């Protein structure tokens, strides 16, 4: 299982995946808004999304757990 943590704080602009969904490596999972810039986060591996730990519009912090993916 891979746990994706945030590299920076900001606000969740768009969530493009949900638990139970299959994703491919390189697919965009969600986009943060950080200082008026969009920062996309990609799946590091192909697998099934087990959990998404926030919703669109949420304020998030650096190192916060974002998404869990199982191979």
TrEMBL record:
Q: Name one Pfam family in it.
A: Biotin_lipoyl
The record's PROSITE patterns line, in alphabetical order, gives: BIOTINYL_LIPOYL (PS50968)
Task: Report if keyword Zinc-finger is assigned.
Answer: no
Source superkingdom: Bacteria
Query: What keywords does the record list, in alphabetical order?
Result: Biotin
**Signal sequence coordinates:** none
InterPro entries annotated for this entry? Biotin_Carboxyl_Carrier/Decarb, Biotin_lipoyl, Single_hybrid_motif
What region holds the Lipoyl-binding domain? 1-70
The answer to whether keyword Protein transport applies is no
Q: What is this protein called?
A: Acetyl-CoA carboxylase biotin carboxyl carrier protein subunit
